[in-house]
Amino acid sequence: RIRRPPVNAIVSNVTGPREPLFIAEAELVALQSVGPLLEDVGLNVTVWSYCGSMQVAVLCCPDTLPDPYVITDGMSAALAELLA
Q: pLDDT digits over 34-55, tens only?
C-alpha cells in the first residue's frame, strides 16, 4: 500500500546575512534559492532574506498546480493588504 505524505506543500524561511557579503571585491547583491519538489508534494515556497530584502521562489508541479501565478499573485495581494 502506498502512503501519501502528510503534507502537499513545503515552505522554508531562511534568515540570511544582514550585512553585505563579498567574494574578493565583488559584492553579493541577492540570494535566491529554490527548494526541491518531492514525490506527491507539488509545491515548494522558499523565502530568503538578505540585507533588508526578501526573495521568494515558488516551484510547483504542473500536475498539482498548473498556474503558479495563483500563488505568487496571492502573495503580492496579501503583502499589499498588510502594508495598507
A: 888 888 888 999 999 999 998 9
**Parallel/antiparallel/unpaired status of strands 53-60 and 43-50:** antiparallel
Q: Give the integer Cα–Cα distance in Å for 24 and 69.
A: 38
In this structure, the strands spanning 9-14 and 43-50 are parallel
Q: pTM of the full predicted structure?
A: 0.79
DSSP lists the bridge partners of residue 55 as 48
Question: 10 Å Cβ neighbour count for 72?
Answer: 14
Contacts of 38 (CB under 8 A, 6+ apart): 5, 10
Residues listed for the chain: 84
- How open is the CA angle 57-52-35, to the nearest 5 degrees? 20
Question: What is the signed CA dihedral for 59, 45, 8, 2, rounded to 10 degrees?
Answer: 60
